[in-house]
Automatic annotation (TrEMBL):
Signal peptide feature range: 1-22
Subcellular location field: Cell membrane
Protein name: Ig-like domain-containing protein
Location of the Ig-like domain: 20-112, 121-205
UniProt organism field: Brugia pahangi (Filarial nematode worm)
Length: 239
């Protein structure tokens, strides 16, 4: 009798084991990596059977079916160790940010990992004119276009060590100086930072042109007035 009970238990366990379904035990996650780094996206499967197919996709684009490759990007690799099918992306590029899906057949099941890529900042100043020539009293508008992830913080400074003009305002990367004077001439620098890699910089030189008037006197009377246009902050010396 004891033999029959033991045999029944063994057969029951054997049936349960053979009927166990493949299951993805890895939970979907959010991965944040810096541009240029490597990342590993895990997919651990329990009770994997011979007829179970493991598929890695980027969105709807199939990357791997089991260990068969369906893409040409050599940075993407599938590394299998036992029942863990890990998607490896080397030297991550900004455009690699996406949803990556690991799915199995028999039964159908999937998880999704979201990859976000931190991108170092880049800057570009417009207008392209350098130096930028302005006339006294005009308004200067300079745009510093930035890119990067997370969105970079933009700051404006003067390279000559002088303070920014009191009439200067900046918003969304745009520097505006109203009613410029010749003292506003100088090199202005845009800096973008987001704690990814090194800060990005770009500069533009602003030259403010003004008019100087010279009067010639004879016997205490003005006999001639000469107007001189210059981009310098003071008139030339007259000998």
């Amino acid at each position: 009798m004891a033999y029959n009970v033991t045999g029944l238990i063994f057969l029951t366990l054997l049936v349960l084991f053979s009927c166990a379904q493949a299951t993805i035990i890895t939970k979907g996650g959010r991965f944040i990596v810096d541009e240029g780094d490597n990342v590993e996206l895990p997919c651990n499967i329990r009770n994997i059977a011979e007829d179970t197919v493991v598929i890695w996709k980027r969105g709807e684009l199939v990357l791997f079916t089991d260990e068969e490759v369906f893409h040409e990007d050599q940075r993407f690799q599938l590394r299998r160790k036992d029942n863990n099918f890990t998607l490896v992306i080397e030297r991550v590029e900004p455009y690699d940010g996406a949803k990556y899906i690991c799915e199995i057949t028999s039964p159908e099941m999937s998880i999704a990992h979201v990859l976000e890529v931190n991108v170092r900042p880049m800057v570009s100043i417009s207008p392209d004119a350098n130096p930028l020539l302005m006339n006294v009293g005009e308004n200067v508008v300079i745009k510093c276009s930035v890119s990067g992830n997370p969105p970079p913080k933009v700051t404006w400074t003067r390279q000559d060590g002088q303070k920014m003009p009191t009439r200067a305002t900046s918003k969304d990367g745009q520097l505006r100086i109203t009613r410029v004077t010749m003292n506003d001439s100088g090199i202005y620098e845009c800096t973008a930072s987001n704690n990814v890699g090194i800060d990005a910089h770009d500069t533009i030189e602003v030259l403010v042109q003004g008019n100087f008037s010279f009067f010639l006197f004879q016997n205490y009377q003005v006999i001639m007035c000469i107007t001189y246009s210059s981009k310098f902050s003071k008139p030339p010396d007259i000998i």
